[in-house]
User: Fold UbiH/UbiF family hydroxylase from Luteimonas lutimaris.
Amino acid sequence: MQARVVVSRRARSDVVVVGGGVVGAACALALAGLDLDVTLVEAAEPARWSPAHPDLRVFAFAPDNAALLDGFDAWRGVLEARVQPYRRMRVWDAAGGGELAFDADAVGRRELGWIVENGLLVDRLWAALARAGVEVRMPARVEGLEQDAAGVRLRLDDGSRVEARVAIAADGAGSTLRKLAGGEVSRHDYGQRGVVAFIETGRPHEETAWQRFLPTGPLAVLPFAEGRSSIVWTLPDARADEVLALDDDGFARELTRAFDARLGAMRAVSKRAAFPLRRQLVQSQVHGRVLVVGDAAHVVHPLAGQGVNLGLRDVAALRDAVAAARSRNADWTTPHRLARWARARASENAVAAHAYDGINRLFSSDGMHRTLLRGPLLGLAGRLPGVTHALWRRAAGV
Assistant:
């Protein structure tokens, strides 16, 4: 495979980013765009994206994060490859009651957001690394960390070292760098898994992101390109095993029933997979000169599709904090500036994580009192344009 990046060896960088997924690569590009020397450490080069092999992991990508990627010339490549705009959202409860609806026209936009494959985002972000002058250490994993008031020193498993003023942990929920820095996390296992697949439906998806709440958990049906849809079906662990074991016809029947046939009969057109669901929050997003972003800092329930959006907002907030300090010829790495960024991000991320946790608890239940409450609540919110507009603006980051 032809390399997309130039691998070099700087003596010292301003920033070393560990982890080359969507959030890590975007962080490297955002800070390189401020004329910082940035090194990215990644265990393996990501697989090339292929339109013939859609990535089962998709995101409901928000407008503010599209603007972030546009700022370092990566979003255009995503748009030119394959994205699916969604213009509407419909949310309702299986127990009845009203419907919560969002429409692009009501908020003065052409779309509410886009459904984008993880693999495509990573591919286009990596294509931008060389243009931005980001040094890449690959394949390499972090094995050791030393830090003091002057900076950080990382020891890599290839025997080399990386020195920088600041290190950024973007290496996922099990982050090695976060652990080496002493970052403690709180975890809650939902006892659920998200079953994902691509499907075809009897009726068009209408450029609409659909979500039906069931006692077992929410079922999201997201519009995808070429008339397909992507599903994220939250189920208790045992029920997820049963659904994964079904043959294609049995799976199609169960899925169509769970969605109340709102889009007609459904048919799987890809393999199925499942991932465990949990809430995980780091106690602090700064540990000396190590900053923690993305899934390394916060893992949330996927019911609102905000996981990657929150991670990219960590990046955007850091970029803005660095730019503001540099505009005043101030040192952006001082402890009080790093702590201010961390406090602001921890607040938003904790609110989001616990809000999604509460929604999941309320709607993933067949208890009488919760069942009687939740449908009318959705209906009430749907009848108040100011509420729906505010909810969308928060999710969209605008």
Remarks:
- The longest helix spans residues 335-363.
- The longest strand covers residues 185-201.
